[in-house]
């Protein structure tokens, strides 16, 4: 009996030692995984990060010059872009392509937005804001957030408040994949920047209906028909504007977007892809150009960006100012929605695909 007890005691001790060995091994493995995660995480902080077709480079310098002067005049252009420049300024032209749902664009604005505004106020830069939507074919709510914000910013430009509204949109950017930029918030932020004309709220509400139609049945029907008739390979080479034009010619009516800021945004996105080539090719947001030449990571460092601008020659804006209409903002569109049985017609409008 005693021999049996001794044998059992040895077996238990061996089992206990084996359990301790396994626990130490697991602890070592956990520590190793944590070290790997830590190294990868640290590497990502200094890496070039691709976000929604755009890029950013997180540098140690993330704050730009504080704006110490009043904003210079902001002039709405025929294509819906906005030029911020001191009257009579002869300076480099800085084109800023951004999507309000793009996290990298928010990073750029946080780092360098005030620097650009100060350079414009000093007459040392002509800042050309060119809002686009690279997310218009992404799943909702990313697509609707992007388009709704862009249309609202365009409406703010009608009231001379694009730059101020641009800033407040980025400060309130929703997390990717989360609903945001609600109509109520968009209207309220307009009031915050000094827009008290009821036409602004009316326009925001009308464009929201267009966004709903665009991101709903229209995009679904357009993509299905294009997939069936064109195939994946050809479809992958088409821009949003090309896809919409193809749909108009093949039974997917996009006329509900006519006259809307949603369509204007999509057309601006399409134009950006067509405007540049080679090393300056537009591939996503944010994209920053000085006199038509695309910047790299230095765009995200305020000091490097400022130096690049000050070292450049004067440039020329490639758009024309929108003719004034006695200061009145354009009326909200009353476009017809696509036929859908007995569904009521609404003021809707969208455009689509990257």
Automatic annotation (TrEMBL):
Pfam families: Thioredoxin_4. Gene3D superfamilies: Glutaredoxin (3.40.30.10). Keywords: Disulfide bond, Isomerase, Membrane, Oxidoreductase, Redox-active center, Signal, Transmembrane, Transmembrane helix. InterPro entries: Thioredoxin-like_fold (IPR012336), Thioredoxin-like_sf (IPR036249), Thioredoxin_domain (IPR013766). Residues 61-209 form the Thioredoxin domain. Residues 329-344 have a biased composition (Low complexity). Residues 1-20, 306-354 are annotated as: Disordered. Signal peptide: none annotated. The keyword Transmembrane applies. It comes from the Bacteria. GO terms for molecular function: isomerase activity; oxidoreductase activity. The keyword Oxidoreductase applies. The chain crosses the membrane at residues 36-58. Belongs to the thioredoxin family. DsbA subfamily. This is Protein-disulfide isomerase. It comes from Nocardiopsis mwathae.
């Amino acid at each position: 009996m005693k021999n049996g007890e001794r044998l059992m005691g040895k077996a238990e001790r061996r089992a206990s030692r084996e359990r301790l060995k396994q626990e130490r091994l697991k602890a070592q493995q956990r520590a190793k995984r944590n070290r790997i995660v830590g190294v990868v995480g640290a590497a990502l902080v200094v890496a070039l990060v691709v976000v929604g077709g755009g890029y950013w480079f997180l540098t140690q310098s993330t704050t730009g010059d504080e704006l110490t002067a009043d904003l210079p005049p902001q002039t709405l252009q025929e294509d819906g872009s906005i030029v911020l420049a001191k009257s009579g300024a002869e300076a480099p032209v800085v084109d800023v392509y951004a999507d309000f749902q793009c996290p990298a664009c928010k990073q750029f604005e946080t780092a360098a937005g005030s620097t650009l505004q100060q350079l414009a106020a000093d007459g040392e830069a002509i800042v050309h804001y060119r809002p686009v939507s690279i997310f218009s074919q992404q799943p909702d709510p990313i697509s609707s957030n992007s388009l709704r914000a862009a249309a609202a910013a365009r409406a703010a430009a009608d009231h001379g408040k694009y730059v101020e509204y641009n800033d407040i949109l980025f400060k309130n950017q929703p997390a990717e994949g989360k609903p945001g930029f609600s109509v109520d918030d968009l209207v309220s932020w307009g009031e915050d920047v000094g827009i008290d004309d009821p036409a602004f709220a009316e326009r925001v509400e009308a464009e929201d209906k267009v966004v709903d139609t665009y991101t709903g049945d229209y995009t679904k029907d357009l993509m299905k028909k294009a997939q069936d008739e064109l195939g994946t390979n050809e479809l992958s080479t088409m821009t949003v504007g090309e896809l919409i034009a193809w749909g108009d010619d093949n039974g997917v009516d996009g006329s509900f977007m006519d006259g809307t800021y949603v369509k204007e945004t999509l057309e601006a996105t399409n134009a950006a892809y067509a405007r540049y080539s080679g090393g300056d090719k537009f591939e996503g947001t944010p994209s920053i150009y000085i006199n038509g030449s695309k910047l790299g990571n230095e765009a995200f460092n305020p000091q490097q960006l400022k130096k690049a601008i000050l070292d450049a020659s004067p440039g020329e804006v490639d758009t024309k100012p929108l003719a004034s209409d006695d200061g009145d903002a354009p009326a909200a569109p009353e476009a017809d929605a696509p036929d859908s049985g007995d569904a009521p017609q609404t003021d809707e409008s969208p455009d689509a695909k990257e």
